[in-house]
Design brief:
Layout (H helix, E strand, L loop, with lengths): L1 E5 L3 E5 L17 E6 L5 E6 L3 E6 L11 E2 L11 E6 L5 E5 L4 E6 L11 E2 L13 E2 L5 E6 L4 E5 L12 E2 L9 E7 L10
Length: 195
């Protein structure tokens, strides 16, 4: 199936993969957000701005034409909002990082929870936000880019593997500086393109 989520967090499912989604309509003021090709037996994980992880069964999402439901009707976000939505297999390894410069390697299975209120997964520092989680398939190094243009490349083996928490410092940041991006790479070279 293909899970379709709007920018404002409304979800629906369509049968099949590689679908033409150009004709999908959204509510006024909303638009396309993200799509995930998965199986109906898989789980959708929502990572909130507060670092909580919520699990929604893909099979529970509406799949009729024109039917759509807010993700907030399946879980209890509390005061948090949706930061990222992802799918995967329990053993998939991902890098979780925050703009504060901290992060860790975890498994998709560590995010799963049976509680409607989810579970605490990431400790998010004041003023920090969660960067998009990235899959580590085939990577042996990480490239971390700070806001002031500093690039650090180091072996992935130096990252701590955790099931939850704050993580370790990926890159040292100056006052008020933020981590812009972390990319898994193969080898020690990256190509940077810009205007």
């Amino acid at each position: 199936v293909t899970v379709i989520i709007s920018e404002k967090g409304w979800a629906r499912v369509r049968q099949g993969h590689a679908l033409d989604l150009s004709g999908i309509a959204f509510k006024d003021g909303d638009r396309a957000g993200s799509t995930f090709e998965c199986r109906s037996v898989d789980s959708l994980v929502i990572l909130s701005t507060e670092g909580r992880a919520f699990t929604v069964a893909v099979a529970s999402l509406p799949d009729g034409r024109g039917m759509v439901a807010p993700l907030s009707s399946f879980v209890d976000f509390g005061t948090g909002k949706i930061a990222h939505v992802l799918t995967g297999q329990a053993e998939d390894e991902l890098l979780f990082a925050k703009t504060s410069g901290y992060g860790f390697v975890g498994r998709f299975g560590d995010l799963l929870s049976r509680q409607k209120a989810g579970k605490t997964f990431l400790t998010v520092e004041d003023g920090a936000s969660i960067l998009p989680p990235v899959r580590l398939v085939g990577a042996d190094h990480l490239a971390a880019l700070s806001e002031d243009g500093r690039l650090l490349i180091f072996p992935l083996s130096q990252m701590k593997r955790l099931s939850a928490g704050k993580g370790i410092q990926i890159i040292a940041l100056h006052d008020q500086e933020r981590l812009r991006a972390v990319l898994p790479i193969r080898g020690t070279r990256v190509t940077i393109k810009g205007l």
